[in-house]
Design the sequence.
């Protein structure tokens, strides 16, 4: 399922200047810095960015899980080791991109899935690079 970005509304959330301690708590109210707009933080190219929900487990070792939402930027050119959303033989998929000597390889981050060498016979198109993943703990 694909989602568009709504930039008409902004959601400003408090951002604290101090980093949070994993040990003893501190009074964070004294460190309130400004309001944070998640659109400003996560979306560099609004006209070229969309969201998509993940289905499956092939990218679990990249901390991308079933039900997560990917932020996909179509304006970015994939580089080695980037996570991309692509169409492969008519199916949308998320994989790790590698180019070796002129050959393109798609890797899952899960031991149960074999790498895929993209050949000229395949229908292959990169839809964008994934700079951020949103998931629940």
Sequence:
């Amino acid at each position: 399922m694909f989602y568009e970005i709504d930039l008409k509304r902004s959601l400003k959330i408090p951002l604290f200047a101090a980093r949070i301690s994993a040990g003893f708590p501190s009074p964070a109210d004294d460190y309130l810095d400004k309001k944070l707009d998640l659109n400003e933080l996560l979306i560099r190219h609004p006209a070229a960015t969309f969201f998509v929900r993940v289905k499956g487990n092939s990218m679990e070792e990249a901390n991308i899980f079933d039900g997560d939402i990917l932020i996909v930027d179509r304006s970015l050119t994939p580089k080695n080791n980037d996570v991309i959303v692509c169409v492969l033989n008519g199916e949308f998929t998320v994989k790790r991109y590698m180019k070796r000597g002129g050959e393109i390889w798609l890797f899952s981050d899960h031991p149960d899935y074999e790498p895929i060498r993209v050949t000229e016979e395949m229908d292959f198109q990169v839809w964008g690079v994934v700079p951020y993943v949103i998931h629940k703990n």
Summary: Residues 2-42 form one domain. The first helix runs from residue 38 to 42. The radius of gyration is 18 Å. The longest strand covers residues 124-134.
